[in-house]
Amino acid sequence: MLAPGEKKTHRAYVWAYCPTPFSALKAVVYDFSASRTGEHARNFLGTWAGKLVCDDSAGHKAGFEQGITEIGCMAHARRKFFDRHVANKSQLAEQAPHSIGGLYKVERQGKDMSDEERWRLRQEVAVPIVEKLHKWMIAQRALVPEGSATAKALDYSLRRWVALTRYLDDGAVPTNNNAVENQIRPWALGRSNWLFAGSLRSGKRAAAIMSLIQSARTNGYDPYAYLNDVLMLLPTQKASQIEQLMPHQWMAA
Predict the structure, then answer these.
(1) For the whole model, what pTM was predicted?
(2) Cβ pair 131, 151 in contact under 8 A
(3) How far apart are CA 59 and CA 52, in angstroms?
(4) Element (DSSP H or E) covering residue 98
(5) What is the pLDDT of residues 191-225, one digit of tens each?
(6) Whole-angstrom Cα distance, residue 85 to residue 80?
């Protein structure tokens, strides 16, 4: 983001929020901010007190003290071990991704189930895998050197174990936040072309426009067709019916 009057740029951030893959609502909302401090997430979420699937970002922690329920991301936990295995071919680091892969297999089986059916499947099949994995991690942690890369990977999961396994108790909750990470990808791909935002205000405006474009894509619409139609309808659309033009409610002609 350009720093006004300083003729230079500094790092700014885009936060992404979306429903779970199991939700009937298909949408994503981006929030542009000058930093990644927790106040931005708290200001955006306001009084909302639902279940938030996220990584171990410090920016979310204050919200957990105000009624938001933390759901840990199993993909982030798996990545810690996978990176260790790739770096030094550690057999110990290979075991955890293998076990977590079993949990993902359960999720693939329950992908098209109802929330209740998915919950029952997890209780019957995933819970035993999780319990076995937890015992294995505790045992291995006592064997690896303090401060080693493997110890750090184990500590990441063990420290967040309650949050990582909380998804087992709610069939409507996913096991990771891959869905929202996929929604941030258009920004990662485009920033080399965009280079910077001109100001905080322009960054927020870009986030609003990108929210509409990406939400249209998520609902299976061509963003150009959607925006073209909305801009044609907007001048005569009643203010009380403006929500009908949102991507998740708009219907292609």
Answers:
(1) 0.87
(2) no
(3) 12
(4) helix 91-109
(5) 888 888 888 999 999 999 999 999 999 999 999 99
(6) 9
| Residue that has been written with the tokens 């171990």 in this structure | 56
Q: How far apart are the first and last CA of the chain?
A: 38
How far apart are the C-alpha atoms of 164 and 130, rounded to whole Å?
10
Q: CA 171, 177, 183 angle in degrees (round to 5)?
A: 125
Nearest residue to 100 via CA among 119, 120, 79: 79
Domain boundaries, the chain: 2-69+178-245, 74-162
pLDDT confidence of residue 82: 82
The CA distances from residue 231 to 49, 162, 191, 205, 237, in Å, are: 35, 47, 26, 16, 10
Reported as a pLDDT band with limits 50, 70 and 90, residue 253 is: low
**134: part of which helix (H) or strand (E)?**
helix 127-141
- Three-state secondary structure call for residue 186: helix
Note whether 148 and 131 are within 8 A (CB): no
CA pair distance 207, 15, nearest whole angstrom? 9
φ, ψ at 17 (rounded to 5°)? -130, 135
**Tokens at 239, concatenated:** 């203010």
Q: From CA 86, how far away is CA 107, in angstroms rounded?
A: 25
Q: Which long-range contacts (CB under 8 A, 24 or more apart) does 119-123 make?
A: 119/169, 119/170, 119/171, 120/171, 122/167, 122/168, 122/171, 123/168
